[in-house]
From TrEMBL:
This is FAD-dependent monooxygenase. Residues 5-335 form the FAD-binding domain. Keywords: Monooxygenase, Oxidoreductase. Signal peptide: none annotated. The lineage of its organism: Bacteria, Bacillati, Actinomycetota, Actinomycetes, Pseudonocardiales. Transmembrane segments: none annotated.
Amino acid sequence: MTRTALVSGAGIAGPTLAYWLVRQGFTVTVVESAPGPRPGGQTVDLRGAGRTIIERMGLMPAVRAACMEQEGLAYVDAEGHHLAEMRVADLGGDGIVSELEILRGDLARILLDATTDCEYLFGTRVTALDDGTATLSDGTVREFDVIVGADGPHSGIRRLAFGPEERFVRPIGGYTAWFTAPDPVGLEGWYRMYNEPGRVASARPDSVPGRAKAGLSFLSEPLEYDRRDVAAQKALVAERMAGMGWRTPQLVEGMHAADDFYLDLVAQVRMDHWTTGRVALVGDAGYCPSPLTGLGTSLALVGAYVLAGELGRHDSVAEAFAAYEERMRPYVAQAQELPPGGIRGYAPPTHRAIRRGIVMMRLMVSRPLRGLTKRLFFSKAEAIDLPDYSCTNGTFVR
Ligand SMILES: Cc1cc2nc3c(=O)[nH]c(=O)nc-3n(C[C@H](O)[C@H](O)[C@H](O)COP(=O)(O)OP(=O)(O)OC[C@H]3O[C@@H](n4cnc5c(N)ncnc54)[C@H](O)[C@@H]3O)c2cc1C
């Protein structure tokens, strides 16, 4: 008998899971709270095992075609001079800017296009959950063999099945706002980053010439604000960036006009279990590593592949969930180790710490230390043996 799955969230993990579940013989419904596919987001990195999943989905040509040509990362001073650079090629395409950088919105679109064999319900969310029974916001009540939260760090499924967000979301000490803005400098393929104590302004290339993907970050304890009030959030970010040098004023001006503004706490999601009864979590909903690691997208792709594969391999949902947890746990644990200094490495709190960061970056990419840098900081995405689930129940088609 055909098994059924409900997936909540049509970001990166959700459509990837849907793709692989269909190949394991499931009928899949995806609900997404946004009214349509969500655009926006900066470039996300495809690393290690995450790349392998894209290859196994046959999507690498589409992804490569959409990838951005990038030179690398440069720390700049207030006049825009490069103080330190990490070029893409310095670490063989696996550094802070990786060889495969794709706009998040483009990756989400490619994944959606690959899953037209699923039912998508946009503008819909799960409002109540009783193990395999879900009440949807359109009023319908439906039964599924499995229900999966792929709905990001503020997961609704996690809240309904596991408990309140505060139990699982660990703030790391800052906020980042992402949005599209006019290119303030002529980026020429560079991801340029400017630091003042506790604050970072950055701009990186967009697929449209003359536009930039901007980021404004600041150190902070968790703040109270209305997640639906975008104007208030923009005002908050503008206030935190006030008086900052380089091209920050232009970026702040661009932010006020941006229609894809996205502000979030820099945080990780940590849980002892990602499954209960017939409900599971995948991607940021269960194990967001934070943008500081550059591994969120790879984890989402790998988690979705493994969860679908184990559900195909086992008739018992409980056995499949146990195997998913066991296989993913070590991979997630090392992906959640933060880079040195955590958010204070990314947004150093003093001028001295900023200077130290610049010297560190020069050392990391110096020829004698490149191999070590790669081993120490940029090999985590590969640290999992991906099973071949293709023959588990005979329904796999690729
Ligand atoms: C708009 C946006 C911009 C982003 N920009 C960046 C970026 O610039 N750099 C970066 O490193 N990471 C960014 N991220 C995060 C990055 O996409 C994830 O870390 C990673 O790809 C893991 O993907 P995910 O599918 O687990 O979560 P997400 O990509 O966050 O997807 C979750 C999806 O679930 C939907 N959703 C949320 N709540 C519900 C609900 N209750 N019911 C139904 N659906 C729900 C969301 O609308 C979203 O489409 C962004 C995420 C979003 C949503």
